Amino acid sequence: MSGTGADYIIEAKGLSKQFMGFMAVQNVDLKVRRNSVHALIGPNGAGKTTTFNLLTKFLQPSAGQILYNGEDITALKPDVVARKGMVRSFQISAVFPRMSVSDNVRIALQHKLGTSYHFWRREASLNVLSGRVDELLEAVGLLDYRRHNAAELPYGRKRALEIATTLALDPEMLLLDEPTSGLGHEDVDRIAALIGTVAKDRTVLMVEHNLSVVSRLSNTITVLARGQVLAEGAYESVSQDPRVIEAYIGGADV
Fold first, then answer.
1. Which of 13, 94, 89 is nearest to 51 (CA)?
2. In this structure, are residues 245 and 254 in contact, taking their beta carbons and an 8 Å threshold?
């Protein structure tokens, strides 16, 4: 890949992870271009999730280096990295089910401000954040649901709420773990459109199994197989790579 270090928001060099003698990820080099959508794909067992967990610091690498905005973050913990602007959402929706949609977002906003959510305080004292809460809920199509408990939302709407709480942290880089997993066709389209919207002013790295979503959103795709980088590039070139076709789906078109 061409370009200077300033072109890339995150770089992995020689990234490896060993579990009990098994090399789940081996010597992975990865560069994510700033203000782009970059997808990690590959067959089951390819090392996607492990690589993702290494980049987001939920796993410590056995070898290699991770740079974020040119800073070595290899030894840092996830919360420290998140405060630097690299924020992750999870494959399983992570919201507070018994709290309202608005309060879920408000908690995230207060965390960003470095304050605590005081359950015993009068509601009026928390209204300073209400305007931003409504902005975020409108952005993800949840404004009409703001008074509902999160548990009442359909699964696809919960994923949208999770993205809203992630955006409340004002990330420079958003990392999405299987954002369309378990969604019906209509919800897939809604979440894909939402990702496209939020990617306009930030970098997105996602692990995603839905190739239609990958082809629609991604500027660059990295294909992993057996813990190593198999191919990288735009969807048009990667999808025609014979190695990818063989490894990913055993001979059919990607």
1. 13
2. yes
Quick one: 1-85+171-254 is in which CATH superfamily? Answer: P-loop containing nucleotide triphosphate hydrolases (3.40.50.300)
CA distance 206 to 49: 10
C-alpha torsion sign, points 76, 77, 79, 81? positive
Find residue 25's DSSP bridge partners. Answer: 17
Ranges of each domain in the chain: 1-85+171-254, 93-170
Query: Cβ of 221: how many Cβ atoms within 10 Å?
Result: 26
Structure tokens at 152: 């009442």
pLDDT tens profile 21-80: 899 999 999 999 999 999 999 988 899 999 999 999 999 999 999 999 999 999 999 989
Its pTM stands at 0.85
Mean pLDDT of the chain: 87
What are the CA-CA distances from residue 162 to residues 7, 8, 49, 102, 174 (Å)?
A: 29, 26, 19, 12, 12
Q: 12, exposed or middle or buried, with CB in 10 Å at 0-12, 13-18, 19+?
A: buried
Count Cβ atoms below 10 Å from residue 135 Cβ, excluding itself.
14
The answer to whether residues 147 and 102 touch, using CB atoms and an 8 Å cutoff, is yes
- Of 56, 72, 66, 54, nearest to 18 (Cα)? 54
- Round to whole Å and give the CA distance between 28 and 18: 13
d(CA 3, CA 23): 30
Whether the CB-CB separation of 107 and 129 falls below 8 Å is answered with no
